Amino acid sequence: MYEGPVQDLIDELGRLPGVGPKSAQRIAFHLLGAEPADVTRLQEALQKVKEGVVFCDVCGNVSEESTCRICRDARRDPSAVCVVEEPKDVLAIERTREFKGRYHVLGGALDPLSGIGPEQLRIRQLLSRIGSQEITEVILAMDPNTEGEATATYLVRMLRDFPGLTVTRLASGLPMGGDLEFADELTLGRALSGRRTV
Amino acid sequence: MHVRHLQVADFRSWEQADLELEPGPSVLVGRNGQGKTNLVEAIGYVATLGSHRVASDAPLVRLGASRAIIRTAVVNDGRELTVELEITPGKANRARVNRGPVPRPRDVLGILRTVLFAPEDLALVRGDPGERRRFLDDLLVLRAPRYAGVRSDYDRVLRQRNALLKSAAANRRARRSDPDALVTLDVWSGHLAAHGAALLSARLDLVADLGPRVAAAYAGVAPESRPAQIGYRSKIEDALPAGYGKPDGERADPEVVAEILLAEMVRRRDNELERGVSLVGPHRDELDLVLGEAPAKGYASHGESWSFALALRLASYELLRADGSEPVLVLDDVFAELDRRRRQRLAEVAVAAEQVLVTAAVAEDVPGELTGARYTVADGVVERD
Ligand SMILES: Nc1ncnc2c1ncn2[C@@H]1O[C@H](COP(=O)(O)OP(=O)(O)OP(=O)(O)O)[C@@H](O)[C@H]1O
Ligand SMILES: [Mg+2]
Ligand SMILES: [Zn+2]
Question: Which residues form the RecF/RecN/SMC N-terminal domain (chain B) (predicted)?
Fold first, then answer.
């Protein structure tokens, strides 16, 4: 244990995903020795994510304005919507360059163990979006794990009553028990182009 | 297959241990508590990612150390693979094959197959149904490693569905409205049925394949005793086609089983919503062990129980061999527990194995056929004699 502020910093860093106690210590001492200007920049960046980043009114992705860049982009196909769990999944799919439509970010997956049911996800917003816009295809791109699968099944049920709507799932081939974010571009691209109707 | 090399660090009592092994019998001899079982436990861990003695990883790490390491070189049909496992309780374990990291530890399953006999096996006969379910599932994974995934997906879906049932039950008691509960429950039921059917069908087929071998093995170790039988008992057995799980019956069809499971969940929904737990599925099933007319549990004598446990392991070994793999036999401290005939029977099977690793406190307990390479284990050192 170190004294006061240094230990506080180590503790805070240690709470971040992927940062173990050793890395937390290394980062803390790095910051301690860093130029004040560098630390200030980091401080400002941290401040801005909480104050300056909002969620897109339409799709729920992280955004700088009330509507995100993808939702504003007139070249994107408004008839296809890809539904994902997290903003990071949008990035993963964008990297494949296979998809030209728009997104809907649920903010997670059904997960009763963590108390997350349909009400805690942006599912109502998805349904009203489909009801009011010219959407003809919904692609379900949940993580290939039990929670993702259950969420997809739930959405299939909720979406089957929309006339003329095609609902597709990413083709299998994604490693099961995984995280969309970590699927490599090729596999994810193939899963997108081989999606099947459900 | 055989283990050519075993190295552990901070595993159980061993700060370091390193031993070269050969095909054929090897006997580890040493006084009580010197760490013999610890060594074969490490080998078993590579094969099953679990210990035959404890359910959690924490006791496997040497007191005072933060992680344990097991390295093995396994030779199968002349091809050698090295498997390295790092066990860190409370964190994700890591695995490497031929020095390259693999995405998940369970990717090493199938590289080494072992059948381990140990004093703890008595619990297969006398313990809770959970012990026998674990026996079946462990054997399934040894037969086909993909069942490790089936099993963990099923456990996960089960925990999720139970969490949902629990909160739905609480809402019901408090008369709180819960409009989503039934739709989401249906979704989780569908998934529980699908994953559960995959597991249950595989268990039924396994019991069908194992049954005759258990009967034969039991007759071999205890010819004077009544005949032994096993059978799979399921919450949905009345609805299952009669041939499922029977040696001469048809193979179980997961789609048929899934439908039956789902129908039963629908039928018992009120009950489940009241109790707040999942009442249908392979997690509630049981492997029946029958001796003559009576269940072995509660009726069999001490010697009969031992013979039954031995027969279950012998049958597992025969089954894996019939599948075309030659598992490593591990006999942990079992000879001291057996009378002459059962020792003899076990020794006959063991000498024919490609590799058999034996531990004993007293060398004289080990039948003559199995005196191959001998290692002395004492004071934190293991030495080839
Ligand atoms: N995590 C651990 N850290 C340190 N020591 C441990 C740990 N787990 C077990 N031990 C020690 O290992 C010893 C038991 O080793 P093991 O079970 O291999 O003995 P054995 O040689 O098989 O003895 P026996 O002949 O009685 O079966 C005990 O003395 C125990 O205290
Ligand atoms: Mg022992
Ligand atoms: Zn948007």
Answer: 3-361
- Residue B56 in contact with residue B89, Cβ under 8 Å? yes
- Surface-to-core class of residue B53, CB atoms within 10 Å of its CB (0-12 exposed, 13-18 middle, 19+ buried): middle
Q: Which of B162, B167, B187 has its CA nearest to residue B279?
A: B162
**B-contacting residues in A 137-156 (Cβ below 8 Å):** 145-147, 149-150, 153-154
Does B36 sit in the ligand 1 pocket, CB within 6 Å?
A: yes
Tell me if A112 and B160 make a contact (CB, 8 A cut-off): yes
Query: How far is A115 from B10, CA to CA, in rounded Å?
Result: 39
Q: Which amino acid is at B242?
A: A
A179 touches B: beta carbon within 8 Å: no
Q: Please name the residue of chain A whose CA is at the shortest distance from the CA of residue B183.
A: A154
CB distance B339 to B306 below 8 Å: no
> Is B35 annotated among the ligand-binding residues?
yes
Angle at the Cα of B87 from the Cα atoms of B85 and B88, rounded to 5 degrees: 145
Whether the CB of A18 is below 8 Å from some CB of chain B: the reply is no
Q: Is the pLDDT of residue B338 over 80?
A: yes
pTM of structure: 0.88
- Residue B44 in contact with ligand 1 by CB distance below 6 A: no
What are the boundaries of each domain within chain A? 1-19+27-35, 75-169
**Residue B12 CB–ligand 1 contact under 6 Å:** yes
Q: Strands (DSSP E) along A68-117, which ranges? A: 80-84, 102-105
Contact yes or no for A110 and B184 at CB 8 A: yes
Return the ligand 1 atom nearest residue B34 CA.
21
User: In this model, does residue A177 exceed pLDDT 70?
Assistant: no
Cα–Cα dist A112/A86, whole Å: 18
Model pLDDT for residues B56-68, shown as the tens digit of each residue = 999 999 999 999 9
Q: How far does the centroid of ligand 3 lie from the alpha carbon of residue A68, in Å? A: 4
How far from A61 is each of A50, A106, A139, B20, B120, CA to CA, in Å?
14, 9, 16, 57, 54
Which residue type occupies B86? E
Optimal mutation site among A110, A143, A146, interface B, most CBs of chain B within 10 A? A146
**Counting Cβ atoms within 10 Å, is residue A178 exposed (0-12), middle (13-18) or buried (19+)?**
middle
Please name which of B141, B20, B142 lies closest in space to residue B72, comparing C-alpha atoms. Answer: B20
- pLDDT tens-digit map of A124-167: 999 999 988 889 999 999 998 999 999 999 999 999 989 999 99
Report the CATH fold assignment for A75-169: Dna Topoisomerase Vi A Subunit; Chain: A, domain 2 (3.40.1360)
What's the complex ipTM?
Answer: 0.84
Structural domains in chain B plus CATH codes: 1-113+325-385 (3.40.50.300), 128-323 (1.20.1050.90)
